C-alpha cells in the first residue's frame, strides 16, 4: 500500500445542501491524519484549468450550516474528451495530488471511473445530489434538505389552494428520478404523484380527480416530477384542464429553490460521516468506491456498480399515494 501525503477534493454536478459539511469533514479528517489537502474549484472544469487552492482547518470554518458549495460546482463537457482529461491529469500531478475525493452524482462518478482507470490516480466518491438516485446508498447528500424544502412549499400551496378551491400542479426536480416527488407528495398529502420511473396513466389521474370532485373535495395538489413522461406540470395541467372545465388549475414550479438553503441536521451529520469515511478509505488504500449509507450502516460500492444501476423507488410508497387518495 502506497502511503499518500496529499489529496484533492472537489464538488461536481448540481450542488446539494450538505456538500459543504462533506468538504469540511474531508479536510479536517485529512489534516487529522497528517495529510495535505488541495481544493479543486468548479468540479472537473477547475481540474482542467488548474483552479486549485490549498486548504487548512480554517478554510472550512463556519460552513457546515451553509448550502451550496464553497468549492463551487460545474457540469463539464470538456472532461468528457480525452484532451480535457489529459490537462486534468497534468494539473493533479503538478500539484502533487496523489488521491482525490469527488463529491457529486452519477456523471461525477462516471467521470472519476474513466479518469482514474486512464491515469491510475485513486478516486473515491461521496454521493452528492438532491435526486437520491445513486445506487449504493439509501441517502444522497442534499436529498433530505431538498425534500423538506419541497414539503414546506407544498404546505404553503395547500393553504392557498384550499382558500380558493383550486387544483395545483406542483413540479419538483427529478429529471430521471421520482424520489423527491414521491416523498414530498406523501409528506404534503398530495392527491396524486407523477414520477419518471412509472408510465403515467392520465386516465387514472382523471379518475382520481373525478372521484374527489364527486365527494365534494374542493382543492387538490398533484406533484409532478420534472422528468415525468406525461410532460412537466404545465403539460399535465393542460391535459387535465382540457378534460375538466370545472377545475380552477394553477401550476407552481419549485425549481432551483430545492437545491439551496441551509442543510438539515440529517444532511449535515450524514455528509460529515461520508466525508470522513472517504478519507479513511483512501488512507486504507481503497479506491474506485462510492461511500454511502445503507440500512443505517456505512457502505462501499464499486464505481462500476454505482454507475450501472439506479435506486428504485418503493412500490409500497406508490401504492400508499393511491390508497390514501382513493
Ligand atoms: O441533479 C440534480 C438536479 O437538480 C436535477 O434534479 C435537475 O434535473 C438538474 O439537476 C438540473 O440541473 P441544472 O441546474 O444544471 O439545470
Could you walk me through the main structural features you see in this protein, from its secondary elements to its overall organization?
- With 326 residues, the chain is of the alpha/beta class.
- The protein is built from eleven helices and eleven strands.
- The strands form two sheets. Strands 3-2-1-4-5-10-11 form a seven-stranded mixed sheet, sandwiched between helices. A four-stranded parallel sheet has the order 7-8-6-9, sandwiched between helices.
- Strand 1, helix 1 and strand 2 form a beta-alpha-beta unit.
- Helix 6 runs parallel beside helix 11.
- The longest helix has 22 residues, at 143-164.
- The protein is elongated and about 70 Å long.
- The model has no long low-confidence stretch (mean pLDDT 97).
- Residues 13-14, 75, 105, 129-131, 173-175, 226, 259 line the site of 6-O-phosphono-beta-D-fructofuranose.
- 6-O-phosphono-beta-D-fructofuranose binds at residues 13-14, 75, 105, 129-131, 173-175, 226, 259.
Amino acid at each position: 500500500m502506497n502511503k499518500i501525503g496529499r489529496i484533492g477534493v472537489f464538488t461536481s454536478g448540481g450542488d446539494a445542501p450538505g456538500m459543504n459539511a462533506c468538504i469540511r469533514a474531508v479536510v479536517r479528517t485529512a489534516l487529522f491524519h497528517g495529510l495535505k489537502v488541495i481544493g479543486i474549484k468548479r468540479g472537473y472544469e477547475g481540474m482542467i484549468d488548474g483552479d486549485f487552492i490549498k486548504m487548512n482547518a480554517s478554510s472550512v470554518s463556519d460552513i457546515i450550516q451553509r448550502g451550496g458549495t464553497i468549492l463551487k460546482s460545474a457540469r463539464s463537457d470538456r472532461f468528457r474528451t480525452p484532451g480535457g482529461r489529459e490537462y486534468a491529469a497534468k494539473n493533479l500531478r503538478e500539484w502533487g495530488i496523489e488521491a482525490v475525493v469527488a463529491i457529486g452524482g452519477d456523471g461525477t462518478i462516471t467521470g472519476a471511473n474513466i479518469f482514474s482507470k486512464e491515469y491510475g490516480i485513486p478516486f473515491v466518491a461521496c454521493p452528492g445530489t438532491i435526486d437520491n438516485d445513486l445506487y449504493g446508498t439509501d441517502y444522497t447528500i442534499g436529498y433530505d434538505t431538498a425534500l423538506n424544502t419541497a414539503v414546506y412549499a407544498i404546505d404553503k400551496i395547500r393553504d392557498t389552494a384550499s382558500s380558493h378551491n383550486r387544483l395545483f400542479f406542483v413540479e419538483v426536480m427529478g429529471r430521471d428520478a421520482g424520489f423527491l416527488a414521491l416523498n414530498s407528495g406523501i409528506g404534503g398529502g398530495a392527491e396524486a404523484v407523477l414520477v419518471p420511473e412509472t408510465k403515467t396513466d392520465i386516465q387514472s389521474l382523471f379518475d382520481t380527480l373525478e372521484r374527489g370532485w364527486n365527494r365534494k373535495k374542493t382543492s387538490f395538489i398533484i406533484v409532478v416530477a420534472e422528468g415525468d413522461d406525461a410532460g412537466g406540470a404545465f403539460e399535465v395541467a393542460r391535459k387535465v384542464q382540457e378534460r375538466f372545465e370545472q377545475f380552477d388549475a394553477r401550476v407552481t414550479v419549485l425549481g432551483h429553490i430545492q437545491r439551496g438553503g441551509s442543510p438539515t441536521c440529517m444532511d449535515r451529520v450524514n455528509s460529515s460521516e461520508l466525508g470522513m469515511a472517504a478519507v479513511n478509505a483512501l488512507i486504507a488504500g481503497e479506491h474506485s468506491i462510492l461511500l454511502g449509507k445503507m440500512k443505517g450502516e456505512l457502505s462501499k460500492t464499486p464505481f462500476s456498480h454505482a454507475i450501472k444501476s439506479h435506486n428504485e423507488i418503493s412500490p409500497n410508497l406508490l401504492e400508499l399515494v393511491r390508497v390514501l387518495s382513493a
